[in-house]
Amino acid sequence: MKHIYFVGIKGVGMAALAIYCKEAGMKVSGCDTAEEFPTDDELKKANIPVDFGFDPQLLKKADLVIYTGAHEGRDNPVVVKARERGIETLPHGKALGMFMEGSRQITVAGSHGKTTTAAMIATILKSAGKDPSYAIGAGAIGESAAGHFGKANIFIAEGDEYVTDHGHDETPRFLWQKPELLVVTNIDFDHPDVYANIRNVQDAFVSLQEKSSTTIINRDDHNSRILREGISFGFSPQADFRITHSGVGRERMFFTLEQKGVKLGEFALKVPGAHNVSNATAAVVTCQALGISIDKIHKGLLDFSGTKRRFEKTGEANGVIYYDDYAHHPAEIKATLKAAREWYPEKKIIAVFQPHTYSRTKALLPDFARSFQDATMVILTDIYASARESYSHGITGKTLVEETLKHHGSVRYGKDFFEVEKILERESGDIVIFMGAGDIYTWAKKLWMKNSKS
């Protein structure tokens, strides 16, 4: 395999795998839309050429074409052209599983927190002198790319429960992996376009556990109890690795751990929130299972400075701090805003949320409406529709506004960036957090740059 062409290369999972392949010595290129993506800088740093658009003529010589479901999947014109020319084509999930073969596989799965936890594990191992391979769905990990080809026989990857190729292959993506160590951060109902209920989601995780040797499980998560016994972590007194204390310092989280009654000491984090304490504990357990000493784990955790789009500080201008976050599920919104409130207890926090997909917004509407309690004010936008959705399910951004007003006293509707900008010109805030999985990731940067010049 000499040349791989990635269709939809700017997606976070695709870009990470593309960078891994480039570092492994393969020729890598790809195509995507011209719009700005969180991965643009990392692809440029890796000298990976990106064609704009999906014209079949873009496909020159290639030994393999890897595609994502975000752009018509296997029905994308470039992918169709590749098959006509006899070039092998693979969906991203299946390709990732293929590249992991032959390595000690560390799969981090879960409805929330898998990106951060996988990045923490990679950071600790690197800090400890190991050189693992990894492909993690983030624009970047600190100052480094989210994909890497390492010399150690370890491969860390996220396990995504979404289907391999919607409409063609309904296999959950993570079932292409065969983990030696499986980390499950939590199980929650999401992706209502492919899962009818929480039990269907749980069944997918049970199938993944059947492929793994050892499972590291969040004892605090009720939905994860469907999994068979493994190594448990959490705040629960029944956890094998128990968080006995958690507190907030000046832009630091501190927590103490015990392993079956034996104290492991105090750990420090540069990222906020009890959810990140839980993620960090999962990383501690995983790295200890890989033979890393507690002293090195302490240092590695403190080296972790976060990932792109996870409570990412964009900048500060005129006394306002701007953050960008990927939160697109009610549980993630609540966790992000709770962490922000702990970090900044006396500040006015404005949450700007762009709902992602009609199906998710409709299925979880009551939960979304109750998820903003730690924000001083909420601004809700129009729904960012997925390319996979062809109808609106009878729901709009205004529907969410009306429902949220039942639970929060300060809610505004701004359909797009320009209307949100006007609202923020009238409303003063100390902290503004932009959240969502659509194109909202550019908004914090735009406002910060504009206001820093004024």
TrEMBL record:
Domain Mur ligase C-terminal, first and last residues per copy: 309-438
Gene Ontology molecular function terms on file: ATP binding; UDP-N-acetylmuramate-L-alanine ligase activity
UniProt gene name: murC
Function: Cell wall formation.
Major place of residence: cytoplasm
Gene3D superfamilies in the cross-refs: Mur ligase, C-terminal domain, Mur-like, catalytic domain, NAD(P)-binding Rossmann-like Domain
Similarity section: Belongs to the MurCDEF family.
Keyword Cell wall biogenesis/degradation: yes
Location(s) in or outside the cell: Cytoplasm
Enzyme class, first EC level, given as a word: ligase
InterPro entries according to UniProt: Mur-like_cat_sf, Mur_ligase_C, Mur_ligase_C_dom_sf, Mur_ligase_cen, Mur_ligase_N, MurCDEF_pg_biosynth, UDP-N-AcMur_Ala_ligase_MurC
Chain ranges of the Mur ligase N-terminal catalytic domain: 3-102
Protein name: UDP-N-acetylmuramate--L-alanine ligase
Domain of life: Bacteria
